[in-house]
């Protein structure tokens, strides 16, 4: 999602469909974050091989379910057969990256009807203007992805402080109504019995053992 060449390729195939709908159906485009991409690339290299082994490959292109290559092969195919003018300004594609991230942030699937306080807590930390620690507002901005358990989960939201007691930066575990039954479930990490802190977990696969331990809310 954050690669300029991916955004250029995406724009190119959308233009093909827009200008030549009788030749090209609406493209199927899969935007991935880095860890998802590396997992996908590893799998496709095992099954297809060939050009997928080109270093720093950031785009995989299929036409009519047939693998044709990476972004260079896509642009060669387009230039040889059609006339499509693509923007050359890097800033144009950087804006597309920002739009993609904004859509992701603005449209989270949060269970605010079932976990109102938990969702408010998470949103406040995203916005960074409500929760304080040592007279400083806490915010996820510039925090790091500090733990990756392959094919299991990601842990994020380490705000750089240790908390050994319950205070205004923690929240009572609201309930355990939402199951960790699929990829993409969002939950707060445990910060002591029946309490949660800012750190959160994104499940990469079902993690049923988390159901009575972490509070899933999205």
From TrEMBL:
MF terms in GO: peptidyl-prolyl cis-trans isomerase activity
GO cellular component terms, A-Z: cytoplasm
Gene3D superfamilies in the record: Cyclophilin-like
Domain PPIase cyclophilin-type as annotated: residue spans: 109-218
Keyword Isomerase: yes
Enzyme Commission no: 5.2.1.8
Catalytic reaction annotation: [protein]-peptidylproline (omega=180) = [protein]-peptidylproline (omega=0)
PROSITE patterns, sorted: CSA_PPIASE_2 (PS50072)
InterPro entries the record matches: Cyclophilin-like_dom_sf, Cyclophilin-type_PPIase_dom
Keyword Isomerase included in the entry's annotation: yes
UniProt keyword terms in alphabetical order: Isomerase, Rotamase
Family the entry assigns: Belongs to the cyclophilin-type PPIase family.
PANTHER family noted in UniProt: PEPTIDYL-PROLYL CIS-TRANS ISOMERASE (PTHR11071), PEPTIDYL-PROLYL CIS-TRANS ISOMERASE D-RELATED (PTHR11071:SF561)
Function: PPIases accelerate the folding of proteins. It catalyzes the cis-trans isomerization of proline imidic peptide bonds in oligopeptides.
The protein's name in its UniProt record: Peptidyl-prolyl cis-trans isomerase
Organism name: Cotesia glomerata
């Amino acid at each position: 999602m954050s690669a300029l060449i991916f955004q250029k390729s995406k724009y190119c195939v959308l233009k093909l469909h827009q200008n030549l709908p009788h030749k090209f159906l609406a493209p199927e485009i899969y935007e991935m974050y880095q860890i998802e991409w590396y997992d996908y690339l590893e799998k496709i290299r095992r099954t297809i091989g060939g050009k997928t082994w080109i270093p720093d490959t950031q785009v995989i292109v299929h036409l009519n379910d047939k693998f044709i290559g990476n972004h260079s092969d896509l642009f060669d195919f387009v230039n040889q057969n059609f006339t499509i003018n693509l923007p050359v300004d890097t800033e144009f594609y950087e804006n597309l990256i920002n739009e993609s991230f904004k859509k992701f942030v603005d449209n989270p699937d949060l269970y605010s009807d079932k976990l109102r306080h938990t969702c408010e807590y998470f949103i406040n930390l995203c916005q960074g203007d409500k929760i304080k620690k040592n007279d400083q507002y806490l915010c996820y901005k510039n925090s790091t992805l500090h733990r990756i358990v392959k094919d299991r989960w990601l842990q994020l939201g380490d705000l750089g402080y240790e908390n050994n007691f319950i205070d205004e930066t923690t929240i009572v575990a609201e309930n355990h109504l939402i199951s960790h039954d699929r990829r993409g479930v969002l939950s707060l990490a445990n910060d002591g019995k029946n309490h949660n802190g800012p750190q959160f977990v994104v499940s990469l696969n079902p993690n049923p053992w988390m159901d009575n331990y972490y509070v899933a809310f999205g």
